[in-house]
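Researcher: Next sequence.
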Amino acid sequence: MEAETFKDHKYKSTSGIHTEKFQKLTYKILYDLYPKYCPKCNVILSKGVKNRPDLVRCGNKNCHHQVSRLSYTPLHHFKLPIWMFGYILEESILQFPKVITSVEISKRLSISYKSARLLKQRLMVFASHQMEVLRKLYYNDLKETFKDVTLPKVEDGKDVKKAIGKKLYRKIPHTDTAVLYSASQRSNQHRKRFRHGGLTASIYQSDSVGGKQVGILISTIATQNGCVFFDSIPDQKANTLGTIIRKTVPYESPLFSDEGYPWLWGIYKKHRAINHTAHSKDNRYKFARNRWSKLSVHNQVAEGNQRLLKSAFSAYSYIKPKFSQLYLNELAFYKSIQVVGMDRLVSAQREGFVRNLPIISKLSHNFEQSTK
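Model: Next structure:
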Protein backbone atom coordinates (compact mmCIF):
# COMPACT_ATOMS: atom_id res chain seq x y z
CA MET A 1 0.00 0.00 0.00
CA GLU A 2 1.16 3.53 -0.74
CA ALA A 3 2.03 6.02 1.96
CA GLU A 4 -0.84 8.30 0.90
CA THR A 5 -3.31 5.50 1.67
CA PHE A 6 -2.00 5.21 5.23
CA LYS A 7 -2.08 8.97 5.58
CA ASP A 8 -5.82 9.14 4.89
CA HIS A 9 -6.62 6.24 7.22
CA LYS A 10 -8.27 7.21 10.51
CA TYR A 11 -8.18 5.17 13.70
CA LYS A 12 -11.51 4.18 15.22
CA SER A 13 -12.28 2.61 18.57
CA THR A 14 -14.24 -0.19 16.83
CA SER A 15 -12.00 -0.57 13.77
CA GLY A 16 -11.20 -4.21 14.60
CA ILE A 17 -14.88 -5.27 14.90
CA HIS A 18 -16.79 -6.63 11.91
CA THR A 19 -19.87 -4.51 12.56
CA GLU A 20 -21.81 -5.77 9.52
CA LYS A 21 -21.42 -9.37 10.69
CA PHE A 22 -22.76 -8.65 14.18
CA GLN A 23 -25.59 -6.54 12.80
CA LYS A 24 -26.75 -9.52 10.72
CA LEU A 25 -26.32 -11.78 13.75
CA THR A 26 -28.58 -9.55 15.85
CA TYR A 27 -31.25 -9.44 13.16
CA LYS A 28 -31.02 -13.23 12.80
CA ILE A 29 -31.58 -13.68 16.56
CA LEU A 30 -34.56 -11.33 16.49
CA TYR A 31 -36.04 -13.15 13.47
CA ASP A 32 -35.65 -16.60 15.04
CA LEU A 33 -36.48 -15.95 18.69
CA TYR A 34 -38.79 -12.91 18.46
CA PRO A 35 -40.60 -13.37 15.13
CA LYS A 36 -43.07 -10.77 13.92
CA TYR A 37 -46.34 -11.94 12.35
CA CYS A 38 -48.55 -10.23 9.80
CA PRO A 39 -52.06 -9.86 11.32
CA LYS A 40 -53.68 -10.10 7.86
CA CYS A 41 -51.71 -12.90 6.20
CA ASN A 42 -50.71 -14.80 9.40
CA VAL A 43 -47.14 -15.32 8.18
CA ILE A 44 -43.78 -14.37 9.64
CA LEU A 45 -42.56 -10.98 8.43
CA SER A 46 -39.24 -11.57 6.68
CA LYS A 47 -38.75 -8.85 4.05
CA GLY A 48 -36.57 -5.85 4.80
CA VAL A 49 -37.25 -2.20 4.00
CA LYS A 50 -34.66 -0.27 2.00
CA ASN A 51 -32.74 2.32 4.02
CA ARG A 52 -34.68 1.33 7.16
CA PRO A 53 -32.94 -1.79 8.49
CA ASP A 54 -34.88 -1.87 11.76
CA LEU A 55 -38.17 -2.42 9.91
CA VAL A 56 -39.54 -5.69 8.55
CA ARG A 57 -42.51 -6.10 6.22
CA CYS A 58 -44.84 -8.75 4.84
CA GLY A 59 -43.68 -10.68 1.77
CA ASN A 60 -47.13 -10.68 0.18
CA LYS A 61 -47.29 -8.27 -2.74
CA ASN A 62 -50.84 -7.22 -1.87
CA CYS A 63 -49.99 -6.54 1.77
CA HIS A 64 -47.96 -3.55 2.99
CA HIS A 65 -47.84 -4.31 6.72
CA GLN A 66 -44.64 -3.07 8.37
CA VAL A 67 -43.42 -3.29 11.95
CA SER A 68 -40.21 -2.65 13.88
CA ARG A 69 -37.96 -5.64 14.49
CA LEU A 70 -37.06 -4.27 17.93
CA SER A 71 -40.52 -3.55 19.36
CA TYR A 72 -41.58 -5.69 22.35
CA THR A 73 -38.21 -7.49 22.51
CA PRO A 74 -35.23 -6.97 24.84
CA LEU A 75 -34.10 -4.35 22.30
CA HIS A 76 -37.26 -2.27 22.66
CA HIS A 77 -36.30 1.42 22.16
CA PHE A 78 -32.65 0.44 21.64
CA LYS A 79 -30.64 3.58 20.85
CA LEU A 80 -27.13 2.18 20.39
CA PRO A 81 -25.91 0.74 17.07
CA ILE A 82 -27.67 -2.61 16.64
CA TRP A 83 -24.44 -4.59 16.09
CA MET A 84 -23.30 -3.92 19.66
CA PHE A 85 -25.88 -6.33 21.08
CA GLY A 86 -24.74 -9.21 18.85
CA TYR A 87 -21.07 -8.45 19.49
CA ILE A 88 -21.33 -8.45 23.29
CA LEU A 89 -23.57 -11.55 23.22
CA GLU A 90 -21.05 -13.53 21.18
CA GLU A 91 -18.12 -12.30 23.27
CA SER A 92 -19.92 -13.26 26.48
CA ILE A 93 -20.54 -16.81 25.22
CA LEU A 94 -16.96 -17.20 24.00
CA GLN A 95 -15.43 -15.84 27.21
CA PHE A 96 -17.54 -18.01 29.53
CA PRO A 97 -17.01 -18.60 32.47
CA LYS A 98 -15.54 -15.10 32.62
CA VAL A 99 -18.27 -12.46 32.69
CA ILE A 100 -18.15 -9.15 30.85
CA THR A 101 -18.96 -6.28 33.20
CA SER A 102 -20.48 -2.92 32.32
CA VAL A 103 -17.09 -1.24 32.77
CA GLU A 104 -15.50 -3.62 30.27
CA ILE A 105 -18.34 -3.06 27.77
CA SER A 106 -17.89 0.69 28.17
CA LYS A 107 -14.17 0.52 27.43
CA ARG A 108 -14.43 -1.98 24.58
CA LEU A 109 -17.16 -0.14 22.68
CA SER A 110 -16.11 3.40 23.71
CA ILE A 111 -19.55 4.24 25.07
CA SER A 112 -20.59 5.78 28.37
CA TYR A 113 -20.95 3.64 31.46
CA LYS A 114 -24.68 4.36 31.58
CA SER A 115 -25.14 3.07 28.02
CA ALA A 116 -23.01 0.01 28.78
CA ARG A 117 -25.06 -0.74 31.88
CA LEU A 118 -28.31 -0.56 29.91
CA LEU A 119 -26.84 -2.85 27.24
CA LYS A 120 -25.85 -5.30 29.99
CA GLN A 121 -29.41 -5.21 31.33
CA ARG A 122 -30.81 -6.03 27.89
CA LEU A 123 -28.50 -9.04 27.66
CA MET A 124 -29.72 -10.27 31.05
CA VAL A 125 -33.37 -9.87 30.06
CA PHE A 126 -32.69 -11.74 26.81
CA ALA A 127 -30.99 -14.58 28.72
CA SER A 128 -33.90 -14.76 31.20
CA HIS A 129 -36.35 -15.21 28.34
CA GLN A 130 -34.34 -18.09 26.85
CA MET A 131 -33.82 -19.88 30.16
CA GLU A 132 -37.56 -20.51 30.26
CA VAL A 133 -37.26 -22.49 27.02
CA LEU A 134 -34.06 -24.27 28.08
CA ARG A 135 -35.64 -25.37 31.35
CA LYS A 136 -38.55 -27.00 29.52
CA LEU A 137 -36.20 -28.68 27.07
CA TYR A 138 -34.14 -30.00 29.99
CA TYR A 139 -37.28 -31.28 31.72
CA ASN A 140 -38.50 -33.15 28.63
CA ASP A 141 -35.06 -34.65 27.93
CA LEU A 142 -34.83 -36.06 31.46
CA LYS A 143 -38.36 -37.41 31.28
CA GLU A 144 -37.65 -39.22 28.02
CA THR A 145 -34.21 -40.49 29.09
CA PHE A 146 -35.15 -41.98 32.48
CA LYS A 147 -38.76 -43.11 31.94
CA ASP A 148 -37.77 -46.82 31.96
CA VAL A 149 -34.69 -46.59 34.23
CA THR A 150 -34.71 -48.12 37.71
CA LEU A 151 -32.07 -47.46 40.36
CA PRO A 152 -30.95 -50.18 42.80
CA LYS A 153 -32.45 -49.93 46.26
CA VAL A 154 -30.43 -48.14 48.92
CA GLU A 155 -30.45 -51.13 51.26
CA ASP A 156 -28.99 -53.39 48.54
CA GLY A 157 -25.70 -51.47 48.65
CA LYS A 158 -25.14 -51.65 44.88
CA ASP A 159 -23.15 -49.10 42.90
CA VAL A 160 -25.48 -46.81 40.93
CA LYS A 161 -22.98 -46.15 38.14
CA LYS A 162 -22.44 -49.85 37.46
CA ALA A 163 -26.16 -50.58 37.65
CA ILE A 164 -27.34 -48.09 35.00
CA GLY A 165 -24.16 -47.56 32.95
CA LYS A 166 -21.86 -44.58 32.42
CA LYS A 167 -23.92 -42.98 29.63
CA LEU A 168 -27.09 -42.64 31.73
CA TYR A 169 -25.14 -41.91 34.90
CA ARG A 170 -23.66 -38.73 33.38
CA LYS A 171 -27.16 -37.40 32.66
CA ILE A 172 -28.38 -37.57 36.27
CA PRO A 173 -29.14 -34.07 37.66
CA HIS A 174 -27.45 -32.88 40.86
CA THR A 175 -28.75 -30.19 43.20
CA ASP A 176 -27.26 -28.09 46.00
CA THR A 177 -27.44 -24.64 47.59
CA ALA A 178 -24.76 -22.01 48.19
CA VAL A 179 -24.35 -18.43 49.43
CA LEU A 180 -22.95 -15.42 47.57
CA TYR A 181 -22.01 -12.10 49.20
CA SER A 182 -22.78 -13.30 52.72
CA ALA A 183 -23.49 -10.75 55.46
CA SER A 184 -20.46 -10.29 57.69
CA GLN A 185 -20.53 -9.12 61.29
CA ARG A 186 -19.47 -5.71 60.04
CA SER A 187 -22.78 -5.34 58.18
CA ASN A 188 -24.52 -6.33 61.42
CA GLN A 189 -22.61 -3.71 63.45
CA HIS A 190 -20.75 -6.62 65.11
CA ARG A 191 -23.93 -8.18 66.50
CA LYS A 192 -24.49 -11.93 66.62
CA ARG A 193 -26.99 -13.44 64.19
CA PHE A 194 -28.94 -15.65 66.54
CA ARG A 195 -32.39 -15.49 64.90
CA HIS A 196 -31.49 -17.55 61.80
CA GLY A 197 -29.88 -20.94 61.34
CA GLY A 198 -28.02 -22.66 58.51
CA LEU A 199 -27.13 -20.79 55.34
CA THR A 200 -29.81 -18.15 55.90
CA ALA A 201 -27.79 -16.93 58.89
CA SER A 202 -25.22 -15.67 56.38
CA ILE A 203 -27.53 -13.63 54.15
CA TYR A 204 -29.75 -11.75 56.61
CA GLN A 205 -28.77 -8.98 58.97
CA SER A 206 -29.67 -9.19 62.63
CA ASP A 207 -33.21 -8.14 63.46
CA SER A 208 -31.84 -5.41 65.71
CA VAL A 209 -30.33 -3.62 62.68
CA GLY A 210 -33.22 -4.12 60.28
CA GLY A 211 -33.05 -7.83 59.40
CA LYS A 212 -32.97 -7.18 55.65
CA GLN A 213 -31.41 -9.59 53.17
CA VAL A 214 -27.84 -8.67 52.25
CA GLY A 215 -26.39 -11.84 50.75
CA ILE A 216 -27.71 -14.13 48.01
CA LEU A 217 -28.81 -17.72 48.52
CA ILE A 218 -28.84 -19.78 45.32
CA SER A 219 -30.23 -23.17 44.35
CA THR A 220 -28.28 -25.08 41.70
CA ILE A 221 -29.51 -27.86 39.43
CA ALA A 222 -26.89 -29.16 36.99
CA THR A 223 -25.88 -32.14 34.88
CA GLN A 224 -22.35 -33.23 34.08
CA ASN A 225 -21.21 -31.42 30.90
CA GLY A 226 -24.80 -30.25 30.48
CA CYS A 227 -27.23 -27.48 31.36
CA VAL A 228 -27.18 -25.61 34.64
CA PHE A 229 -29.92 -23.64 36.38
CA PHE A 230 -29.30 -21.08 39.12
CA ASP A 231 -32.23 -19.74 41.14
CA SER A 232 -32.12 -17.02 43.78
CA ILE A 233 -34.09 -18.14 46.84
CA PRO A 234 -34.94 -16.53 50.22
CA ASP A 235 -34.66 -19.74 52.29
CA GLN A 236 -34.21 -23.52 52.11
CA LYS A 237 -37.74 -24.56 52.97
CA ALA A 238 -39.47 -27.37 51.08
CA ASN A 239 -42.07 -25.00 49.62
CA THR A 240 -39.29 -22.85 48.14
CA LEU A 241 -36.89 -25.49 46.81
CA GLY A 242 -39.59 -28.00 45.94
CA THR A 243 -41.25 -25.63 43.47
CA ILE A 244 -37.97 -25.07 41.62
CA ILE A 245 -37.04 -28.76 41.53
CA ARG A 246 -40.53 -29.78 40.42
CA LYS A 247 -40.49 -27.52 37.34
CA THR A 248 -36.93 -28.56 36.38
CA VAL A 249 -36.67 -32.29 37.19
CA PRO A 250 -39.50 -34.75 36.35
CA TYR A 251 -40.60 -37.48 38.77
CA GLU A 252 -39.19 -40.16 36.44
CA SER A 253 -35.64 -38.81 36.74
CA PRO A 254 -33.04 -39.73 39.37
CA LEU A 255 -31.77 -36.86 41.51
CA PHE A 256 -28.58 -36.62 43.58
CA SER A 257 -28.19 -34.22 46.51
CA ASP A 258 -26.78 -33.98 50.02
CA GLU A 259 -28.91 -34.67 53.10
CA GLY A 260 -30.36 -31.17 53.11
CA TYR A 261 -33.37 -32.44 51.14
CA PRO A 262 -34.98 -35.09 53.42
CA TRP A 263 -38.47 -34.22 52.19
CA LEU A 264 -37.65 -35.44 48.65
CA TRP A 265 -37.70 -39.11 49.62
CA GLY A 266 -41.46 -39.48 49.41
CA ILE A 267 -41.76 -37.42 46.21
CA TYR A 268 -38.88 -38.50 43.97
CA LYS A 269 -38.57 -42.28 44.18
CA LYS A 270 -35.14 -42.18 42.51
CA HIS A 271 -33.69 -39.54 44.82
CA ARG A 272 -30.36 -40.44 46.42
CA ALA A 273 -28.44 -38.40 49.00
CA ILE A 274 -24.86 -38.37 50.23
CA ASN A 275 -24.10 -37.75 53.92
CA HIS A 276 -21.29 -35.18 54.10
CA THR A 277 -21.03 -35.56 57.88
CA ALA A 278 -20.73 -39.37 57.96
CA HIS A 279 -18.48 -40.42 60.84
CA SER A 280 -15.74 -43.00 60.52
CA LYS A 281 -16.12 -46.41 62.15
CA ASP A 282 -12.45 -46.20 63.04
CA ASN A 283 -11.98 -44.25 66.28
CA ARG A 284 -8.75 -42.78 64.98
CA TYR A 285 -10.66 -40.63 62.48
CA LYS A 286 -13.60 -38.29 62.88
CA PHE A 287 -15.17 -38.44 59.40
CA ALA A 288 -15.60 -41.35 57.01
CA ARG A 289 -13.70 -41.60 53.75
CA ASN A 290 -16.88 -42.00 51.72
CA ARG A 291 -18.62 -38.86 53.00
CA TRP A 292 -18.15 -37.15 49.62
CA SER A 293 -19.10 -40.05 47.34
CA LYS A 294 -20.69 -43.38 48.27
CA LEU A 295 -21.76 -46.02 45.77
CA SER A 296 -21.31 -43.36 43.03
CA VAL A 297 -23.83 -41.05 44.73
CA HIS A 298 -22.57 -37.47 45.14
CA ASN A 299 -23.54 -33.89 44.29
CA GLN A 300 -20.15 -32.69 43.08
CA VAL A 301 -21.53 -31.56 39.70
CA ALA A 302 -23.70 -28.94 41.44
CA GLU A 303 -20.84 -27.98 43.76
CA GLY A 304 -18.47 -27.60 40.81
CA ASN A 305 -20.88 -25.24 39.06
CA GLN A 306 -21.20 -23.23 42.26
CA ARG A 307 -17.42 -22.90 42.38
CA LEU A 308 -17.55 -21.62 38.79
CA LEU A 309 -20.33 -19.20 39.74
CA LYS A 310 -18.37 -17.77 42.66
CA SER A 311 -15.27 -17.30 40.50
CA ALA A 312 -17.29 -15.52 37.80
CA PHE A 313 -19.17 -13.28 40.22
CA SER A 314 -15.93 -12.12 41.81
CA ALA A 315 -15.80 -9.66 38.89
CA TYR A 316 -18.81 -7.88 40.41
CA SER A 317 -18.13 -5.99 43.61
CA TYR A 318 -21.66 -6.60 44.88
CA ILE A 319 -25.13 -7.52 43.58
CA LYS A 320 -28.36 -6.56 45.30
CA PRO A 321 -30.56 -9.59 46.05
CA LYS A 322 -33.52 -8.17 44.11
CA PHE A 323 -31.39 -8.10 40.92
CA SER A 324 -29.64 -11.43 41.53
CA GLN A 325 -31.91 -13.63 39.38
CA LEU A 326 -31.07 -11.67 36.22
CA TYR A 327 -27.34 -12.07 36.81
CA LEU A 328 -27.77 -15.79 37.54
CA ASN A 329 -29.88 -16.33 34.41
CA GLU A 330 -27.25 -14.64 32.28
CA LEU A 331 -24.42 -16.91 33.44
CA ALA A 332 -26.61 -20.05 33.27
CA PHE A 333 -27.64 -19.18 29.71
CA TYR A 334 -24.04 -18.80 28.51
CA LYS A 335 -23.19 -22.28 29.78
CA SER A 336 -26.42 -24.02 28.75
CA ILE A 337 -26.55 -22.61 25.22
CA GLN A 338 -23.16 -24.14 24.45
CA VAL A 339 -24.64 -27.55 25.25
CA VAL A 340 -28.08 -27.18 23.66
CA GLY A 341 -27.16 -24.99 20.67
CA MET A 342 -29.06 -22.11 19.11
CA ASP A 343 -30.63 -24.30 16.41
CA ARG A 344 -32.45 -26.47 18.92
CA LEU A 345 -33.47 -23.43 20.94
CA VAL A 346 -35.06 -21.85 17.87
CA SER A 347 -36.85 -25.04 16.80
CA ALA A 348 -38.20 -25.48 20.35
CA GLN A 349 -39.73 -22.00 20.25
CA ARG A 350 -41.24 -22.65 16.84
CA GLU A 351 -42.70 -25.98 18.00
CA GLY A 352 -44.45 -24.28 20.90
CA PHE A 353 -42.44 -25.34 23.98
CA VAL A 354 -43.28 -21.92 25.37
CA ARG A 355 -45.87 -19.44 24.30
CA ASN A 356 -44.75 -17.09 21.62
CA LEU A 357 -43.33 -13.80 22.77
CA PRO A 358 -43.86 -10.66 22.51
CA ILE A 359 -42.81 -9.75 26.00
CA ILE A 360 -42.63 -6.11 27.03
CA SER A 361 -39.39 -5.60 28.94
CA LYS A 362 -39.37 -2.54 31.19
CA LEU A 363 -35.69 -1.73 31.37
CA SER A 364 -35.86 0.79 34.21
CA HIS A 365 -33.49 1.06 37.14
CA ASN A 366 -35.23 -1.81 38.96
CA PHE A 367 -34.96 -4.35 36.10
CA GLU A 368 -38.70 -5.03 36.05
CA GLN A 369 -40.04 -7.54 33.53
CA SER A 370 -43.72 -7.82 32.71
CA THR A 371 -45.57 -10.04 30.29
CA LYS A 372 -48.20 -8.77 27.97
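Model: Residues 113-145 form the longest helix (33 residues). The CA atoms of residues 167 and 222 lie 16 Å apart.
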